[in-house]
Each structure stands twice: as C-alpha cells, then as structure tokens.
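Following up on my earlier thread - several people asked me to post the actual chain instead of describing it. Fair enough. Here it is, all 317 residues.
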Amino acid sequence: MRQVVVALLAAALILAGVVGCGGDGAEPGAPQGAALVLDFTPNAVHSGIYAAQEQGLYEDAGVDLEIREPGDSTDAPKLLEAGRADFAILDIHDLGIAAERGFGVVGVLPIVQRPLAAVIARGDGPVRRPRDLQGRTVGVTGLPSDEAVVDSEVAADDGDPASVERVTIGFNAVASLAAGKVDAVTGFWSAEGVALRRRGVPTRIFRVNRFGAPPYPELVLATARRTLRDDPELVDAVRKATARGYRFATQHPTQALDAVAAAVPGLNRNSQQAQLRTLLPILMPATFDHRVLRAWAAWDVEHGILGSPPDVDALFR
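Reply from S.P.:
Thanks for posting it. Predicted structure:
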C-alpha cells in the first residue's frame, strides 16, 4: 500500500510540474515565441525592428521574436491566416487587398507616417511636373498601386492620365531610368530615389501625397484578427517593443543600422545609410489617424486598388 501511495504522490508531483510549465515544456517566465515576416529584403526601413531585437526590447517585453525574410510579398496574409507567422510588415495597399479577399488581418502599428510612393523623372529631361508625363512613357512594376500613383499625380496636376504610356519594367526602375529607356518611373523616393542619386543620375521626385493622395502610412505592422482576439498581450508587447525600437533608431541611427548589417551579411551599408537618413523624419510610429485612413481608403477605391472602402475602424486597431 505504501508503494502505491508513493507512486501516486510522485505522479502528482510530475503532473504539477507539467502544469506549472504551461503544458508546453517551457520554463516559467520564458519569453513567448513569435515570428514576424518582413515585406521585403531587410533594409533601412526595418532598422527599428532589428534595433529592437539587438537591444533586447522584445525580450524585455517577454517575446522571443524570429524575424523572417519574405518569399513572396503576397504570402504574408496567408501565413498570418494559417498561423504560420504571428506578425508581418505589409504595404498598406496589400493589407487592404488582403482584407477585401477575406483574410482576417488587421493593422496594429504604422511603421512609416507618410507614403513612400513617387513618380521619379530624370532631372535633365523634359518632365518638370506630373502633367508633363502626357504623351510620354512611365516605367511601372505592374502592381495596381503603381497605376494609381501615376493616375493620381497626373490628374492632380490638371493632366490626362489616359495620355500617359505605361511600360511594365518590373523592379528595374533604377536601371531603366538611368539608361533613358523611359521618361519616368514609379518607385519609393526613399529607395529608388536615393539609389539614382547615388549613381549620379539627376532626378525630379514627385511624391504622391503632394499630388492627390492623402498622407497615409505606407508600411504597417499587421497580425491576424484571431491573434489579436486570442492573445492581445502578445500583440501589445510586440507593438510596444517595435515602437521603442523605431524611437531608438531615430535617436541612434548608426547603431540601428549596425543591427541590420549584423543580421544581413552583404548589406550595402553606404546605400542603406543614405536611405535611413531620408527616412528618419517619418520613422516615428504612433497611433493610427483614422481620419487619414478613411481618406486613404477612398483614394484606393477611386484609383481601383480596392473595390469598396474597408471598415477602417475594424482594419486598423
């Protein structure tokens, strides 16, 4: 009988130990694992994320964050929906499109406070303002947002968007404009614009929020609506640590870039340093401005990116 009692006591102690560890073998108080998928190859715009990781800000918030490079930019909503990633950096238009297609995604933090999209023309060419693109060629990637940028800018400058010839060049904006194959290209003023300047190509850059578009946040930290519902503490921890990382990046840009370079072998540091310098004024994550977001939604619908305006209050939290 004594042996039975001892065995039962031992089993109870073992069971108590399992329950005390959360049932998953994790040590009590250990950081919670989570994965974040980037929107693009790691670069200056992600400096706050890598700075937060290098400075231990995610760990301090109780999160063991894995940062993943993307395979295909359209995969992130699927990964969030399937629970194969917990967070993602999404272009705001991709977030809207994903929601329209039925994915349960939600934006929880703006990463940049202004649009990065622009039309970039050669500074030594005939295009001095967006309406000068009438009858000329613009290189576009083929994404719907590129068409919207061209239409918005030309129309806002009292031109006829239909008279602009669009040439699909993929992601070869820098080489195409440098070689004079097109009169202008669409791209990010913080990336392609900087790259062209570093190559000595004179440019005129027309930012979309100065020609028709509202000042929407280009990139957004997103999660699955299910994750926000079931684990709000995790979402809040990652959101706050990421915001702290970007505040650190704006105050210590060299250290933030060191963090990116340490994680990404072969990174062109000079190029990324130039990009980060241009981004610093808008790398200040804050709360979403829902008035601006409603204007963004109307702009996306007007220019055919979205079929109907989303419920902004539900899509951005």
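The chain has a mean pLDDT of 91. That should answer part of your original question.
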